[in-house]
Design goal:
With about 270 residues, the chain is α/β, with parallel strands linked by helices. Helices cover about 50% and strands about 20% of the residues. It is built from twelve helices and nine strands. The protein starts with a helix and ends with a helix. The site of one calcium ion has 4 residues, from loops.
Length: about 270
């Protein structure tokens, strides 16, 4: 028994070292990717369910690695958060997305709101609000066209700082969205105190609408709650006609998902806007 225990320990350390090495490698490659322009942004439209018009787009990062091919953000964003490199990545994303939004406006395309994902590191970064302000001025995008998405997990890390940051963002006219809403374990009371504009109903509830009465009930309840609290709702990950039908019946105003369009290149997005 003793021997097995020791072997087990050995295996654990080997696996741990491997994962540390993998992380180190990934970190180096991400640094390189930033300098070598390997990152790009795709845009997924958000649709007004009354008018069928595109009212917003979510910027989603893509990494095209010369050897590995496409690397999913679910793989590299968490590592970038651990190593702190996310600050630089998020800042690049913010500038690139705002720049794109301003370019579309200048071309006279229909106005859309640009949604950008913010990691916890970036949210609590002391210069966030100054950065956002600086970028908006630099690229000449009016602040009302920018929405920042963060998760409940991010907001609850430091509730005092959270309300400061959200208020500061509100003061400069930037919108805030609560991403993956409903998947956290928090109480709902903060919703009435914090200046949040939009709830993004998590995809996991939308996908269960047809076969799971509980998911359907959760979606209805969140839509009802949002109405009372005067928050907008964007349903995420809509993939099927019956999900859309259910959302419309329950007065959801905006939806996003592969049913309407997968994330698009800037060029493809532009064609859709025209
Ligand atoms: P998220 O913010 O919840 O983004 C939505 C994800 O769902 C995106 O995955 C999107 O492509 C995918 N999606 C949209 N519609 C559908 C659908 O109908 N069906 C299915 N199955 N999926 C759909 P993606 O682009 O792989 O991003 C994954 C996560 O990585 C994001 O989740 C976000 O947390 C993070 N992420 C992506 N881009 C950025 C970024 O620029 N900065 C930061 N900090 N995080 C990012
Ligand atoms: Ca998001
Ligand atoms: Ca989400
Ligand atoms: Ca997510």
């Amino acid at each position: 028994a003793k021997k097995t225990g020791k072997n087990k320990y050995l295996i654990y350390t080997i696996e741990m070292n491997e994962s540390i090495l993998k992380k180190k490698r990934l970190e180096r490659e991400m640094n390189y990717a930033l300098r070598e322009d390997q990152f790009s942004l795709y845009y997924q439209p958000q649709i007004d369910l009354h008018t069928n018009e595109v009212v917003g787009v979510e910027a989603l990062i893509r990494w095209s690695h010369p050897e590995w091919g496409e690397v999913s953000p679910d793989k590299f964003i968490p590592i970038a958060e651990e190593t702190g490199l996310i600050l630089e990545i998020d800042k690049w994303v913010l500038r690139e997305a705002c720049h794109q939004g301003a370019a579309w406006l200048k071309k006279g395309l229909p106005a859309v709101k640009i949604s950008v994902n913010l990691s916890a590191n970036q949210f609590y970064y002391n210069e966030l609000v100054e950065n956002v302000k600086g970028i908006l001025e630099e690229v000449e995008l009016p602040s009302s066209y920018l929405s920042l998405e963060m998760t409940e997990g991010t907001l609850l890390k430091d509730t005092k700082k959270t309300s400061e940051v959200l208020r500061a963002l509100q003061n400069i006219g930037v919108q805030t969205s609560l991403d993956d809403f409903g998947t956290g374990y928090s109480s709902l009371s903060y919703l009435k105190d914090l200046p949040i504009n939009i709830l993004k109903l998590d995809r996991s509830f939308i996908s269960g609408i047809k076969n799971d009465n509980k998911d359907a009930a959760i979606v209805q309840t969140i839509l009802h709650l949002a109405k009372i609290l005067e928050l907008d709702v964007i349903a995420e990950g809509v993939e099927a006609e019956e999900q859309l039908k259910f959302l419309k019946q329950n007065h959801c105003l905006i939806a996003q998902g592969d049913y309407f369009s997968v994330p698009l290149t800037p060029g493809e997005m532009e064609k859709l806007l025209i």
